[in-house]
């Protein structure tokens, strides 16, 4: 089933109005007709099963069939603080993080980050990254589009995470699997959880010390060294699996 996002203002008791670039996609690319079903989300966590009532060049009117269509969002909000990787790895990380239920993705400039973005490049990248997030949200039937925030320094990221309930930092020099299991057990439904992932080369020890001094819990992802694009997906998968089971 095709999936589209609108703002809450486009939703009334009976219909949803779809406008903008999605109109061309529905009309000329998908060639959808009156009576065909589609899924529409308001970007705030509410999903609607609809059927097309009318299509013209300016808008699509979708009639609501089921206003309580089962949502896909976890009650826990994951914030991925991703150390800036090289080349196009960030695009893959965003796509997979959105599929795995991440609520927000924050690119972080760390001491070992090779990529440096000026203001103009950052604006262009952010536009591209948020478009990838929206596409991934549609594909995975998310009820929201996770936001990719502007790039932060590591210090700014740690400060931003202070308001969260639990913060985790996988660190290759930390070998405590028992402590890791205890840290993961602290994550439960309806919390805000920060996950700090280093770039290629990992975090410098001083960055880990700063994180620990601000109550970020060090964890291990096992005996093997994972790539930066693998590490975040690993811990997100573990946490998603744990919390999906608790919500059932």
Taken in chain order, the helices and strands follow as EEHEEEEHEHEEHEHEHEH
Number of helices: 7
What is the 3D form?
elongated
Q: What percent of residues adopt helix (DSSP H or I)?
A: 25-40%
Largest sheet: 7 strands, parallel
* CATH topology description of the largest domain: Alpha/beta knot
User: Radius of gyration over alpha carbons?
Assistant: 20 Å
Taken as a percent bin, the fraction of beta residues is 25-35%
Query: How many domain modules?
Result: 2
CATH architecture of the largest domain, by name, is 3-Layer(aba) Sandwich
| SS-derived structural category | alpha/beta
Low-confidence runs of at least 5 consecutive residues: none
Mean pLDDT: 92
DSSP summary, beta strand count? 12
Q: CATH H level of the largest domain: which superfamily?
A: SPOUT methyltransferase, trefoil knot domain
How far from one another are the termini? 24 Å
CATH top level assignment of the largest domain: Alpha Beta
3D structure, described in words:
By secondary structure, the protein is of the alpha/beta class. The protein folds into two domains: 3-66, Beta Barrel (Ribosomal Protein L25, Chain P); 77-247, SPOUT methyltransferase, trefoil knot domain (Alpha/beta knot), CATH 3.40.1280.10. 35% of the residues lie in helices and 25% in strands. The chain is built from seven helices and twelve strands. It has helices at 21-29, 89-99, 119-139, 154-160, 177-185, 205-213, 228-247, and strands at residues 3-5, 15-19, 37-41, 47-55, 59-66, 77-83, 102-109, 147-148, 152-153, 166-170, 192-197, 217-219. The strands form two sheets. Strands 6, 7, 8, 9, 10, 11 and 12 form a seven-stranded parallel sheet that branches. A five-stranded mixed sheet has the order 1-3-4-5-2. Helix 3 links the parallel strand 7 and strand 8. The model has no long low-confidence stretch (mean pLDDT 92).
